[in-house]
C-alpha cells in the first residue's frame, strides 16, 4: 500500500508543473506563427487577432512569419513546437487542402494539433495588373485562352488559398497558366502592381483597398453575393463561373498535447478578440467578418477541418495537382 501511495504521489508531483502552468498561463510572450510572408492576407488577419488576444490574455503575442511550401513549413514548425501554449498557428483552408496536395507532409492536420477555434472566412477576388488588356471576366477568360503561354499567375505556393483558387479557375477555363510562387501574396501583390506578374486570385483582406483605389483590374469575387465594400465587382457566378463560389476559412491551432485548460483559455481569448471593436471594424473594411462565438471553439474548428479535408480531396485528385 505504501509503495502504491509513493508511486501515486510521484506521478502527482510530475504533473504539478503542467497543472501550475495551466493555472498561471500565460506567464510570458506568446508566438503566433503565420505560415506566409508579412503583409499578406493571413498576416493581416493574424496581427489584428493577436493584438486583441494580447489585451485579453495580458501577455504580448508576437507574430512570426514562417513562409514556404504553401504554408506547410510554418504549420510543421508549430506541429513540432513544445505543447506549452506559447507557440500558436494561425492558418487557413490550406490546413485541409495540403492534407491531399502533399503526400509526404511532416505532420497530420488531424493528429498534430490542438484546436482553439475558427477565426474568419474571407472571399477571394480574381485580379490582374492595372494595365491588363481585359475589362470583364469573360474578356479575361478569352484573353487567357488565346495568350496562355504569355501570361503569368501569382500564388503563395501549392497549398495556399491563392493556389487553390488558381487551380479551380484554370480547371474551369481549361487553360493552364505559368505559375509564379511567392512566400505570400503580400510580395506577390507588389509584383502585380508593378506589372512583373499578370494575374492572381487573392483574399479581400489583401485586395479590397487595391481594388477600391483602382490600382489593379478586378474581375470577380467568389462570394455568393456582391460585397457591399466592392459593389461594382461582379460575383464569379455573374461572370459565368458558378462553381467558383467559396471562402477562405481561418483557424487558430496549437501543438498536440497542449493542456486542455490552456486551449480553453485560448479559445475564450479568441472569442473576446473576435468581438473586439477594432477587429470587427477592420475586418469589415476588408470585406470579411469574424466568426460568431459558437464557431470560435475547438469542436467547430476540428469539425470544419475534417469536413474540408473530405470536400477538397476528390477535387484535388481530379485535378491531379500534387506538391510531391
Ligand atoms: C494564400 O494565398 O494562401 C495566402 O493569401 C497567402 C498569404 O497570406 O500571404
Automatic annotation (TrEMBL):
Keywords: Receptor, Signal. InterPro entries: BUG (IPR005064), Bug_dom1 (IPR042100). Pfam families: TctC. It comes from the Bacteria. Residues 1-22 form the signal peptide. Belongs to the UPF0065 (bug) family. This is Tripartite-type tricarboxylate transporter receptor subunit TctC. It comes from Chelatococcus composti.
Amino acid at each position: 500500500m505504501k509503495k502504491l501511495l509513493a508511486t501515486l504521489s510521484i506521478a502527482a508531483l510530475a504533473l504539478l508543473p503542467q497543472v501550475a502552468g495551466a493555472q498561471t498561463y500565460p506567464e510570458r510572450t506568446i508566438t503566433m506563427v503565420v505560415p506566409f510572408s508579412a503583409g499578406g492576407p493571413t498576416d493581416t488577419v493574424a496581427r489584428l487577432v493577436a493584438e486583441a488576444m494580447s489585451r485579453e490574455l495580458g501577455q504580448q503575442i508576437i507574430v512570426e512569419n514562417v513562409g514556404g511550401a504553401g504554408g506547410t513549413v510554418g504549420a510543421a514548425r508549430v506541429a513540432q513546437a513544445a505543447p506549452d501554449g506559447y507557440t500558436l498557428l494561425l492558418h487557413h483552408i490550406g490546413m485541409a487542402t495540403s492534407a491531399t496536395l502533399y503526400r509526404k507532409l511532416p505532420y497530420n492536420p488531424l493528429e498534430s494539433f490542438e484546436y482553439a477555434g475558427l477565426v474568419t472566412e474571407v472571399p477571394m477576388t480574381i485580379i490582374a495588373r492595372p494595365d491588363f488588356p481585359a475589362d470583364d471576366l469573360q474578356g479575361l477568360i478569352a484573353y487567357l485562352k488565346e495568350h496562355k503561354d504569355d501570361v503569368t499567375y501569382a500564388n503563395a505556393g501549392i497549398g495556399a488559398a491563392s493556389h487553390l483558387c488558381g487551380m479551380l479557375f484554370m480547371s474551369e477555363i481549361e487553360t493552364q497558366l505559368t505559375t509564379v510562387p511567392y512566400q505570400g501574396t503580400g510580395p506577390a501583390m507588389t509584383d502585380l502592381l508593378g506589372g512583373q506578374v499578370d494575374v492572381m486570385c487573392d483574399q479581400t483582406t489583401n485586395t479590397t483597398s487595391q481594388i477600391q483605389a483602382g490600382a489593379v483590374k478586378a474581375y470577380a469575387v467568389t462570394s455568393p453575393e456582391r460585397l457591399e465594400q466592392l459593389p461594382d465587382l461582379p460575383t464569379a457566378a455573374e461572370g459565368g463561373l458558378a462553381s467558383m463560389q467559396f471562402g477562405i476559412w481561418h483557424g487558430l491551432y496549437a501543438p498536440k498535447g497542449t493542456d486542455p485548460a490552456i486551449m480553453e483559455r485560448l479559445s475564450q481569448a479568441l472569442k473576446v478578440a473576435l468581438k473586439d471593436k477594432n477587429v470587427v471594424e477592420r475586418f469589415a473594411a476588408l470585406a470579411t467578418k469574424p466568426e460568431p462565438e459558437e464557431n470560435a471553439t475547438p469542436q467547430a474548428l476540428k469539425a470544419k477541418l475534417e469536413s474540408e479535408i473530405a470536400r477538397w480531396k476528390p477535387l484535388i485528385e481530379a485535378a491531379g495537382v500534387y506538391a510531391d
